[in-house]
Amino acid sequence: MDGHPTDTPGFIKSLSALGDSLLGALQERVELVSVELQEEKYRLVRLIIWISAAVFTGVMTLAFATLTIVYLLWDTARLAALGGFTVLYGGVMVWVIVMLRRQFTHQPKPFEATIDSLTEDRACIRTRT
């Protein structure tokens, strides 16, 4: 009977230490996810702002350039100019869509650091057992 009371506090202490370690690891991972989520949010906002600025300035430039050229060709070839611009802008639109799709396929995976960290943790636990 004397051996059991001394074994119990050691076992409980070990369980407590294990629980503390697990909760500490979980807390670190949640903090890492939180930081990565914040970074993704900032990156998305910056991307939206730059895309909006590019689209606005591009549309304004194209509109005024098109109006200027059509005005200059009003008497001689206005339909040809309008048709040519339509074909040109359609081709540019297709090129932009292809480039945008390529950009999205080469983006890093969200939460990549968290996934890598969890993979390392699992590998470390497997080697210890």
| N- and C-termini, Cα separation | 32 Å
Radius of gyration: 31 Å
In percent terms, what proportion of residues is strand? under 5%
Instruction: Supply the number of structural domains.
Output: 1
> What sequence of helices (H) and strands (E) makes up the elements?
HHH
Parts with pLDDT < 50 across at least 5 consecutive residues: none
- Rounded mean pLDDT is 82
Structural class: mainly alpha
Residue share in helix? over 70%
How many individual β-strands? Answer: 0
Give the overall silhouette.
Answer: rod-shaped
- Helical segment count: 3
Reported for the largest beta sheet, the result is:
none
Keywords:
mainly alpha, 129 residues
Task: Provide structural commentary.
89% of the residues lie in helices and 0% in strands. The mean pLDDT is 82. The longest helix is centred in the first third of the chain and has 70 residues, at 3-72. With 129 residues, the chain is an all-alpha fold. The chain has helices at 3-72, 78-105, 112-128. α1 packs antiparallel against α2 and α1 packs antiparallel against α3.
